[in-house]
Structure formats: C-alpha cells, structure tokens
Design brief:
It is built from three helices and no strands. By secondary structure, it is mostly helical. The radius of gyration is 17 Å and the shape is extended.
Length: 76
C-alpha cells in the first residue's frame, strides 16, 4: 500500500467530504435539512480556494490548442 503525506491525507479527506455532500445534494431524499452543512461549507471553501489559485496564478494562459494537446496526452 502506498504511503501518503499528512497533506495528501488532508486533501483526500477534504475531497471525500466534498464528494459526500455532492452525493447528498444529488439525491437529497425528502428533506434538504439532512444535508451535512459542515461538508457543504467545506465544499464551498474548497471551490473558493481553487478559484483563487486559478485567478491569482502568474502562469500565462495557454491557447485552446495547447490545452487540448495536453488533455489528449493525459488520456492516452
């Protein structure tokens, strides 16, 4: 089994909580009050953090062609 760093374990826990709340929102049952508000707050915070990373990046924007080439390389 692969060993993870504490940072990776924290990221895995965050992503699991985010996926859990997305699953709850996708099939909420009869009452939306059953949605874990802590996980929902975590998901919104995660999105905000990722958005900040992207919008504050100093990296140049790549062209659509370069992005498509990178995606094709990853999917092969």
């Amino acid at each position: 089994m692969r060993a993870f760093t504490f940072e990776q374990l924290d990221q895995i826990a965050t992503l699991n909580a985010c996926l859990s709340v997305v699953a709850d929102l996708a099939a909420p049952g009869s009452d939306l009050h059953n949605i874990d508000r802590g996980n929902l707050a975590l998901l919104l915070g995660y999105f905000a953090k990722e958005l900040h990373k992207v919008t504050s990046s100093d990296q140049p924007i790549t062209s659509t062609e370069q992005t498509e080439h990178k995606l094709k390389a990853v999917s092969v």
